Predict the 3D structure of the following.
Amino acid sequence: MKLSRHTAGRGAISGQRRGISALVSWWDPRPFTQLFVIALILAALWLLGQNILAALARAGISPGFAFLGRAANFQIGEAVIPFSAGDTYLRAIGVGLINTLRVALAGCVLAALLGTALGVLGLMGNPLLTRLVRIYVEVIRNTPLLLQLFFWIALARNLPGPKQAPHLGGVWLSNRGIFVPAPVAENGWALPLALTALVFLAAFALRRFGGLRYVWTGAFVASAGILWASGISLDIPSLQGFNIRGGLSLSPEFAALLLALVVKFSAAIAEIVRAGILSVPEGQREAARAMGLSEWHIMRLVVLPQALRVIVPLTTSVFLDLAKDSSLAVAIGYPDLVSILNTTANTTGQAIEAVLIMAGSFVILNLSVAFLMNRYNARVALRGEHRR
Amino acid sequence: MSVIFPQYSSRMLLAPLVPLLRSLFGGALNTVLTLLAVLMLALILPPLLHWAVTDAVFSGTQEECRQAAGACWAFVQAKARFILFAFYPSEALWRPILVIALLLGMMVASALPRFWGMRLILGWPLMLALAWWLMAGGWGLAKVSLNSWGGLPVTLLVWSTCMIFAFPAAVLLALARQSRMAGLRLLAVAYIEVMRAIPMVAILYFAMLILPMALPQGVILDKLIRATILIALFWTAYLAEVVRGGLQTIGPGQAEAAQSLGLGYWRLIQLVVLPQALRRVIPGLVNLGIGFLLATSLLAVIGAFDLLNTARASTTDQQWLGFYNEAYIFAAVIYFLLCFAGSRYSLWLEARLQRG
């Protein structure tokens, strides 16, 4: 008899779903068992909450978010927005959030590029490359990220000083940080970027509606010209005296964290790309070849659109994992969100609020990415239906 | 030979090599890739070999290591005991060794399909109790404080304890998420989604900063225990999602058939649903377990002495300062062996299960 209530269809009830009855039918099978379980959980939480409140009262800490407006008396190693000791905790947390986003975004882009390259290289049919990619993936996948991070940070801190720093193509590796070439604008960024965007819009329109060929090549050449003419150049770091100047300087902590995340998650993405491409049946490629498509066109028009349906959702979850694991920054002293919230908890005693902010930020991030992913998935699935 | 059959002469010798050569040098792009790969290997392998083998010091003192240009394997020799067992007292060292042997043996036994069944379900909690007793002492064994635990036994013990507690909870959570009881379903969904959204470091901070306050006054738990409790709660959400994947493969017809036989809900779950659903997700569970073993290394963030943290701490010994490459490679090899074996096993199992 129990079972019939679990498996009974909902159709009979759905007709009278109004007001109270809707609420009742929502609770339909065994409402009292459910309420009992929920009450039990709430009671346990209430008990723990009481303990926490008592402990806070003993320590003389008043719960709440008022501490966010108080002055934070610590320094932050690297901050994109200016921060000095004495600024508010809110600002410190903002600095941490920006640092997390910075390393996570750079990590996602680079891991996707490296992972895709590795995944494709492993499928080129060259046995040497296939083995090498396999070894890379297995070694990276089967050792802890934190161990790799410790390794990279030890390496970064033990690099030679600027005078002996190894360098190649304008990239310098020194114990003062990693220096990479960076673009600089003499007359500001606004105009050249706007012009470049216009060029690409025009190219898109020409390609889409005019059917012209080689417009993309043209667009790249044109925008390179625009950028050069408007005073944007590449600032290449160089040794001046006892220091390396110019370019973009990455702190050893940022560089180590970024490298660790990119290496670890590129292995995951390489596997996903491989699985995605292999999920397209060989017969489709053969059919495309029989129709006279070139290898490049087979990849772009036949394999990739289908492989992406496997690749994109899985890669998104890898990106979310990467963002979460950027919190390992705390182990090497890179001031990310988690690390600054930890400092905040230790200096103010507001541990609950700090952990709530920590959890809340990541839940919001996850929910928004999940929302975008659902939109994307719906679109991909629909397009597939239309084309068939 | 070659005079009589000129056309077969040199080809006969090279024939087995032709497919290989073609796969390496067939086509311009392929040739370039091969040459690039060879160039990369030529740049990386010789210095690595020099460092790891020819210039390395295999036994000796720190001074000899400082003189040499290569790796200091003597360091690993000197510190292996610390990295594996931390400060565990020497006279009782057989206990952590026995714990490692027991837990690894139990993992191997759990991996073999012929042992699957009631014996394992009862055996694991018993084995865990035995392992915790061996490590902590009491009841006839000398007591060893949690402060001196460390290394591989801690990593394995935390991992298996969390898995054993998380797994039944995960099954219940997955059932709640699949259930038609909307109140429980909502709770399960919220728990799973929140847990999966937050980083494990946040969970460890919860264990460090908030759990001590939530306990009744006077109750003090060691941070390793607190971390173990919260990691188990955290992993429950991940395991529940994998279990749910298995539950979803069981069609409604099975429940209807069981119902017509007069089975109640829990008998249906126990006799019909779980045996099939769990069997199907074992490869997924193994992969998750591998990820969890690697994730136990995050214990180092809160200063607990797991295998990774002892390796890190060994590099700060004044006598052997700064041999971090060797320490991390040693720890990495242990993690790799465990996880690689696990992932190969998972592949084998998947193939076996597909055959039916």
Remarks:
- Residues 122 and 129 of chain A are 6 Å apart (CA to CA).
